[in-house]
Design goal:
Chains A, B: Keywords: FAD, Flavoprotein, Membrane, NAD, Oxidoreductase, Transit peptide, Transmembrane, Transmembrane helix. Two copies of one chain form a homodimer. In chain A, 31% of the residues lie in helices and 25% in strands. By secondary structure, chain A is an alpha/beta fold. In chain A, the strands form eight sheets. A six-stranded mixed beta sheet of chain A has the order 5-2-1-9-21-20, with helices on one face. Chain A has a four-stranded parallel beta sheet with strand order 13-12-11-17. In chain A, strands 6-7-8 form a three-stranded antiparallel beta sheet, with no helix packed on it. At the A-B interface, strand 5, helix 4 and helix 10 of A face strand 5, helix 4 and helix 10 of B.
């Protein structure tokens, strides 16, 4: 009696899509290899809190091996995939090895993009990984140190001038939190500057911030930002960025710290698939999230371009990635059991939330629209609830509680042993 | 009516000595500048916990500006001192600026030293700063990843072979915690290795570990280490270290991960003072912690070589540094008020504690000698109590509670965006 070989599913990326697909297949007779460049799953919605020193890196990350340790049909492998050969069903790794598969789920997500202005990257870093967050934290905290040490008033002001480019959720969160740090957290701590005099600008090319929300909520978000001390500039695309500031049209605005929250592009691995990509580099998948002619090759999460029933694209948010991951698991499970596969992927939109800063947020759930303190509590509960792991939830809640009573941010620690950073220029 | 100018005290180093001196002078009519290369005070006794992923960096550090924000006679300055000119009472900073002083407290502590074998530094990193701890954490966690990916059994075993050089408190803590991680924390998480099969060796050149304790406690510490799974090698100096392992005499022992906890040397700034240093590079100060002929220049903490009344040197431990800092403040206060200065510095020895690992420690307090679980609880209470800042204490206790019930270590997150690190060799 010969046994059927156990099919091999390779999942690239341990983000929401990859991890949710893996867990949904826990009881199936399938061999799963989960490949990721990093050893941890990252709760990206709270990454801005690490960048702004409210949380420490381990608070919002959990080792993939630990999350999946007891799921015996999974092997977690730390490695970087550099190419996918869909004809021979093989992935190539950066260490020279390769891995064959029966099914593949590609879920490597998105990175930030400068739309043809890659030279801005050095002066306007983005925020997608823990390393980005730690680097941004250092940059933000050192700007105040440089301002304190600088005798020249104009140069001092430039160190106290911050700009966030991009009025989406990340840009709004960063700008709101930065204003809070300047106005409250650093109070009393400097002798030659008043941190509260720092300028925080949010620059958005489009007509309004948080444009995925109804117009009335966008407007409320803008008012809340302004109340926190952020200057909101809409309808003004940035035309240049360098180490001293940025340009709006022909007008130069001094700002030693510019953060990029404007552009998102799909992970470059998609290019090796040799299939049509959309303008943002995402893979145009079929309604069942597979590639045409390759029912064994799925793409999910931020890397997948797929439409909702109403013709609008599925947004690049965590709930959509989780739903796609579970959907892919459903299709694979149905095939394993020889049952009919489910119909096309349907995105269930449970609503949209965005936080703005201290006790400020907006919420849009069907006909329910909230803003202000109530929306903020709603946002907090939802985010802490969805954090993976008991320990993270408790520690994050505790940090938040202490932060909100004391205005303190416990992770205000500069590390990264860069000599250059310590010397005022 | 002319006002006396307020005297200027410069303190270099925000460790235990510098910070305790600063705080003790809070109510005096003196202008204090506290200079540090880093923006935070570090609770060094728990640094090994960051290296072994039990705590995150911000748990054991607090921003100096925050600690001292309300002490109006202090200015905190981020900067690196490169030389001291005691003739003209001036310190030189790396950014080219200089700073005059009326009194100076030099308290820059110690760094690790390889006793003429600096080529070992790359393969056997030490542990003195948060950056060291984050780098060591990455190295330890990646060793298990490399072992998992390595097909060759001998190479696999070398990745699972760990050595800690130096049987002092840091070496013992690191070896004990590493054994715990291998035997408990990583259980179930790998598919091609059994982490519990990892070899953890503690190599000490002298005849026993923790030699500052009575012999009977040293022996108990050794037994506790062995019970945790550590192989203790005493009387065996290391003769060479490279990336593949280390040598004991002529015998080569494969070990891809070697940690240096053997040598401590005073901070190199002392050399610019142009005064006699001891073999470890520490400044030989007078009984009042000043330099001969320079009553305005104090040295305190790990950088100061001074004897106790019994002729033994004052040990390089946190309580001694705090006591020296307070003593310097007492001398300066007496001078400010034109009162007689206190007699020579006297070290009050309140006892000696060392932790070994899970529920294992030794304690020596006068005639009281403890080991095992009771000693561990004693150690835990003392260390958490002395952690600066309410938030740190609560978070650290919470982390410990969760870690001890679950055997989990919450900070098992690899960051540091080194491409090299992600590729198994």
């Amino acid at each position: 009696m010969s046994r059927e070989p156990v099919p091999h599913l390779v999942i690239i990326g341990g983000g929401f899509a990859g991890l949710w697909a893996t867990r949904a297949l826990a009881r199936e007779n399938i061999r799963i290899t989960l490949l990721d460049r990093r050893n941890h799953h990252l709760f990206q919605p709270l990454l801005y809190q690490v960048a702004t020193a409210g949380l420490s890196a381990p608070d919002i990350a959990a080792p993939l091996r630990h999350i999946l340790g007891h799921q015996r049909n999974v092997e977690v492998r730390l490695g970087e995939v550099i190419a996918i050969d869909k004809a021979i069903r093989q992935v190539q790794l950066a260490d020279g090895s390769s891995l064959g598969y029966d099914s593949l789920l590609l879920a490597t997500g998105a990175t930030h993009a400068y739309f043809g202005n890659d030279q801005w990257a050095a002066d306007a870093p983005g925020l997608k990984t823990l390393d980005d967050a730690i680097a941004l934290r250092r940059k933000l905290l050192l700007a105040f140190e440089r301002a304190e040490a600088e005798p020249d008033p104009a140069k001092k002001a430039a160190w106290l001038s911050f700009a966030v480019v991009g009025g989406g959720p990340t840009g709004v969160e960063l700008a709101g939190t930065l204003a809070e740090i300047a106005r409250h957290t650093l109070r009393n701590e400097f002798r030659h500057i008043d941190p509260a005099s720092a300028k925080v600008r949010l620059v958005e090319a489009g007509p309004r911030v948080l444009s995925s929300f109804p117009e009335v909520l966008s407007l409320k978000a803008r008012r809340q930002l302004e109340k926190l001390g952020v200057e909101v500039l809409t309808g003004t695309p940035v035309s240049d960025i360098d180490s001293l500031g940025f340009k709006l049209g022909e007008q130069f605005v001094p700002a030693r710290t510019v953060v990029w929250a404007a552009g998102v592009a799909a992970s470059p691995l998609a290019r090796t698939l040799d299939v049509p990509l959309d303008r943002a580099g995402r893979v145009q998948v079929q309604p069942d999230l597979t590639l045409p002619g390759h029912p064994e090759l799925f793409v999910a999460g931020d890397l997948a371009a797929v439409n909702q029933a109403n013709g609008k694209p599925v947004p690049g948010v965590a709930p959509a990635a989780k739903q796609m991951g579970k959907y892919v698991a459903d299709v694979i499970r149905a095939r394993l059991h020889g049952k009919p596969t489910p119909g096309p992927f349907k995105y269930a939109d449970y609503g949209n939330l965005a936080t703005i800063g201290r006790m400020a947020a907006i919420v849009h759930l069907g006909r329910l629209q909230l803003s202000g303190v109530l929306a903020w509590w709603f946002w907090l509960a939802a985010h802490v609830f969805f954090l993976i792991g008991f320990r993270n939830r408790v520690v994050v809640l505790l940090n938040w509680a202490v932060a909100y009573w004391s205005y303190q941010r416990s992770a205000r620690i500069i590390f990264g042993d860069d000599q250059e950073d310590r010397r005022p220029r």
